[in-house]
Structure formats: structure tokens, C-alpha cells
Amino acid sequence: MSSVNPGALPETDGKSTPRRNEWPLWEVFIRGQHGLNHRHVGSLHAPDAEAAIHHARDVYTRRNEGVSIWVAESRHIAATAPGDKGPLFEPSESKVYRHPTFYDIPDDVGHM
Amino acid sequence: MYAQMVKSTGKGIKPREEMSAQERAFQDRVDADERIEPRDWMPDGYRQNLIRQIGQHAHSEIVGQLPEGNWITRAPTLQRKMILLAKVQDEAGHGLYLYAAAETLGVSRDDLTEDLLSGRMKYSSIFNYPTLTWADIGAVGWLVDGAAIMNQVPLQRTSYGPYARAMVRICKEESFHQRQGYDIMMKMAQGTEAQHRMAQDALNRFWYPSLMMFGPSDTESVHSAQSMAWKIKIDTNDGLRQKFVDQTVPQAEYLGLTVPDENLKWNEKRGHYDFSQPDWDEFFDVLRGNGPCNTDRLGARRNAWEDGAWVREGLLAHARKKAARKTAAE
Amino acid sequence: MAGNDKDALLNFLLRMGDSALILGHRVSEWCGHSPVLEEDIALANTALDLIGQTQLWLEYAAEIQGEGNSADDLAFLRDAWDFRNFLLAELPNGDFGRTMMRQFLFDAWASILLPRLAQSSDPRVAEIAAKAAKEAAYHLERSADTVVGLGDGTAESHDRMQAALDYLYPYVGEMFLSDEGDAALAAAGVAPDPASLRNEYDALLKRVMNEATLELPDTRFTHSGGRDGRMHTEHLGHLLCSMQWLQRAYPGSTW
């Protein structure tokens, strides 16, 4: 996974402007029934934020998937660049001491 | 619904020794089943092929609303009306997810729409066949969605991340589509004599067009080979078609319906059914625009697009005014 | 239940069920033809909610009627004069603007009536209304926003919305007509007198139309004949032709 936002558009040179009358693209994040974090579920087009929320409700919660919706215009989402993958994410691979399984606790101690 | 006959832009598989270092690294990632994401480097051919395939897949969903939508106002019970409406609505949703996946490759939905309306891009040939009786709604769910699911399930593992994720969502939602179709077929096949006749007639008309959905034999195709190397195509057309026939024939037998193929026979040695190929001349004719409903289908989409322009513009104009008023107030 | 009270309740249930059915049917005609995918999906949701409500209202109506009918029998086997829907619901869709204006005019009424019905002395009515009220509240939010957006959009969208309002407004008053049956239901605490809802409705309309920069026609004239089946528009017969065709052509079949 090299992009924070899987739906983000590829980086443009700034020259290509959106079509004059195409509704902007929005990214939709939904928090499900079980209290987990909002999760990116997809994108849609809408003229403004209110409409984007309505559409997100109609498009992405048809099967009772959510209890809360966030929308953000796609162009406002900042993302890591693929080239940063090594420096950003590989250093954490060596920090095994952050994971509970790194530590051996005798069975006699009981659940910990 | 899905993409069919996507002509790749490449000229067959590029041999590894002709690849640049970047291309080799890309192919290694695909081979290792890593997902390619929108901002990753990718060969131009890969990007172009994906845009065509995902775009065609999306168009198929949208045009695919029409043959079934044709019966929403005539569904025979309140329950059937709701089921069909929910199903056709799902197709719109699936089109939307797929357009969004294509948009991550740098094309706009409006551009793709215009490519559909101008005929530059295609959609699956199956939707150019008419739905004439209520049994056709059963046959579409059972056969057409059945064939589509068969093609779409493996695409959940396709190499392009946004496409694969869209397919996961679509497959999950489509799980009821085929079942509701078969449910209609059971009611019809086991119903009155007139209903049974409608069911058999629907199977007669939709059998071969459903077989065509997998596309012509790919033994000769260089396009298929490249797409498979890139993992934007997972199985061969012939393999999927055989799987579909093997799965569907017993289902037809259960319904007490006859598959319209005199050569259909279980082949003990192969462990598969032998069956007749559809009329591929008809298939190419339909792709060229000469199917029974091509003109009506594109006409309906064109009307929706053109008649809706003032709505899209009106709501956007209002959003801009509102934003301007908000800025002025700050 | 006394004969008159039963008739009043049956009429009321048919009015609720038939209006939801006919409007839901109209909205479903958009499926696959809307101006933009997101609207296509949203309209289908509205239609699904309305047809779902239909099932509940007509099921109860069939029980009260007591002739062994199902909700489907009532929907698919009655002729035009037996339908009790408001004329507003059966008017053709016209353009997207007219469809959304019609939806707003209906949603505004439903969103005022249903929360009151949720307090009905008749527990079945209360139960159905409580479910439908939530759906109506969302429908209203969406249809009002769309009316405002298109009214205050481009010059063309504004003109189309004004034309839609001018065309539809003479059908609004029917939703607030009362007769003896309504008075009896009101007295029994089953449903509020329709006329009593008008002030709140007018205030809501005024607020939304003001924001939409649209002008409410200066007339109290209203077409009527749907709620009592006295005189529907010619459009209803054509709608029923499609809707009821299979059930009529192949009677007694299971679908």
C-alpha cells in the first residue's frame, strides 16, 4: 500500500483542470456499527459537501453499513508518495519490541 | 456485469529482456501479487488497458440497468418490484464504484461517459438483447449475472488495487442477484403452463448470448496474454465459459427446462459438458452496433445525459454561489 | 368497530397506501434514466421506501377490509375508481425538476403528518407511521435541498423549477381536505384532521421556496378527486395498465 488514500488521483502537474461542469470528486469514510474508526469506502461526485453526504448515505450505506459518514474533497487529501515507502515505513519493521509477542512470559504467570 | 473483448494497446507480451529496469520492477511486483496503487509508476500500456477495461465494465453496469429497468414498472408483486428496483439500483452503484476506480487512473467520469455515448467505448454485448417477458428478468439474473459473477470473482485478485477493491464490494453485493433470478425462474418453471412456456422461451433466447459474454476463444489472442501477465485478466475466456456451462446445465435440469443445444452432452473423459459455440458472427454484429437493442440502449443513455445537463449545471451553480456567499461573509 | 368508523379507517389507510404506491411507482420510472448516477441511486432509495410503506399500509387496509385480500390484491387488482391516492402522486414525472418538486411537496406533507400519526391511538397506524416518519424526514431533507439547489442554480434551472411549482401547486390543497370520516378519525385520536396541518405546511413551503428564490402561486384553488376516488386524472389509468398488466393477463399465477 503506497498511497494513504487508495482513491486519490495520481499526482497531476497542475495544468489539467477538472472539466468545467463536472461535479467534484469526494472521498467517503464510514464508521460502521461496531465503533471502529471511519474507513475509506469509496468515492462519488457531488456539487458540495452537503450533497456529498446525502449521496454517500444513499450510495454507500444501502445495506446498513454505517452510523457515521465523513466526506472530503479528493483534491484536499494529502498522501504519501510511492517513493517514500522505504524511509516512511521500513524503519518500523525492525522495532519488534513494540509487539507483545516479543516478550516471553512464563505460562505460570497467567494471562497478560 | 463485466468487460468483454477489451483490445489491449500492446503488441503481445513484452519479453523481459526488452523491458526497462522500471518495467521489470513493475512486473516483479505484479508477479509477487503486490497491488499496484494509483500513484505508483506503471507502464502506459497497463494504464491504458485498465482504463478501457474498467471503463467498459462500468459502462456495462450502467447500460445493464436498462433491460431489467424495463420491467420495474411491470413487476407482478410489490415484493418483486422492490427486489428488482434494489437490484437495478445496485447496478448503478457498481457502475459508480467502477468509474471511481477508473478515475484514479487520471480520466474523468464525464469523459468516459462521452466516450460511451459516441461509441468510442463499448459495453457488454448481452445488454443489446431485449427483455420480452417477466421470465426474462429471471433469466437475466440467473444466466447473465451468473456469467458475470463467474468473471468478477477472480477479478477481486486483479493487480490494480482500486479495481480489486471495487470488485470485492461488487461481488459482495451481487451475491443476491443471481439467486433472485433463479427464484423467479423456479416460480415460472413450476407455475402455470403459460409461465413455464415463458421460462423456456427466456432460456432459449438468453442461452447463447450468455455464452458470448465470456468473449471469443482466447487461444489466439495476444491481447489476452498481455492482460494475463499484468493480472488484469485472471482466467481464459474458454475456461470461464466451460465453468459456466458445467454449473448451469444441472440448474436448468432442476427447473425442468431444456438447454437449447442439441450437442450438449456430458463428456465423461473430460469431466465437462461438451456444448455448441454461439454464433460468433452474430456476436461481432452486435458489437458493431447491430444488436436488437443497441440503438435504443445508447439512445436512452444519451437522453439521460443530455436531459440531465441542466440539473448537473444547476446544482453546481448553486454550490458555487453558496461557497461564494460563505467566503464573502467571512 | 362500527361500520362508519371502519369505512373511515379503511379510506384513510387506502389513501396512505395508494399515495405511497403511486408516487413510488412514478419515482421508480427514473431508474436508469437520471441526470447523474448519484441521483439515480438516491431516487431508487426513495421509491423503495415508498413501496415498502405501501406494503404496510395496504396490508393493514386489507385486514380492516376483511375480504381476504392481500396487499398485492389491493395494489394490482383494483381499478382506477377504487384508488384513493392524491392526484399529486399520479401526475407524470415531467423533467427531473418537476419530479423533485412533486417529491418535495409530498415529503413536506408526509414529514408533518407521520410524526403525529406515530402517536395514533391505533397501535398499528402508530407503528407504521413511526417507521415511515424516519424515511420521510430524510426524503424531505434531500428533496428540499434539491429544490433549493435548482431554484437558486442557473437561470434555466430556476425557470424550470418555477414552471414545476406553477404546474404542481394546484394539486397541493387536496392533501389538506377533510370530510366526515376524517373528523371521526380525529375525534378517535387515530389521525389528525388533515386541514389542521396546513399552517405548518405553508410555513415550511414558504421557507424553502424563499431560499430557492421561487414564487409560490397566489391561489388557494385545488384540484381534487383522488382522495375520495371521485375523479382521478387520465394519467392513472395508463399507470395501472403497466403496473397491473401481469396480474391481469395471467390471473391466479404465483410470481
Structure description:
The complex is a heterotrimer of chains A (112), B (330) and C (255). Chain A has 112 residues and is an alpha+beta fold. Chain A has a single domain, classed as Phenylacetic acid degradation B (Ubiquitin-like (UB roll), Roll). Chain A is 15% helix and 18% strand. Chain A has 2 helices and 3 strands. In chain A, a hairpin with a 7-residue loop joins strand 1 and strand 2. The longest helix of chain A has 12 residues. Chain A is flat and about 65 Å long. In chain B, strands 1-2 form a two-stranded antiparallel ribbon. The longest helix of chain B is centred in the middle third of the chain and has 29 residues. In chain C, helix 1 crosses helix 8, helix 2 packs antiparallel against helix 6 and helix 5 runs antiparallel to helix 6. At the B-C interface, helix 3, helix 4, helix 12 and helix 13 of B face helix 1, helix 2, helix 3, helix 6 and helix 7 of C.
Keywords:
heterotrimer, A: 112 residues, Ubiquitin-like (UB roll), 2 helices, disordered N terminus, B: 330 residues, mainly alpha, 13 helices
Order of helices and strands of chain A: EEHEH
Low-confidence stretches of chain A: 1-16
Q: Which assembly state applies to the chains in this document? A: heterotrimer
CATH architect. name of chain A? Roll
Q: What is the overall silhouette of chain A?
A: flat
Question: How does the major sheet of chain B shape up?
Answer: 2 strands, antiparallel
Give the strand tally of chain A.
Answer: 3
What is the rounded distance between the termini of chain A? 32 Å
Strand content of chain B: under 5%
Overall pLDDT level of chain A: 80
Low-pLDDT regions of chain B? none
- Residues in helices of chain B, as a percent range: 55-70%
CATH superfamily of chain A: Phenylacetic acid degradation B
Secondary structure class of chain A reads alpha+beta
Neighbour order of strands in the largest sheet of chain A: 2-1-3
Count the helices of chain A. How many? Answer: 2
Mean pLDDT of chain B: 94
Give the N-to-C terminal Cα separation of chain B. 48 Å
SSE order of chain B: HHHHHHHHHHEEHHH
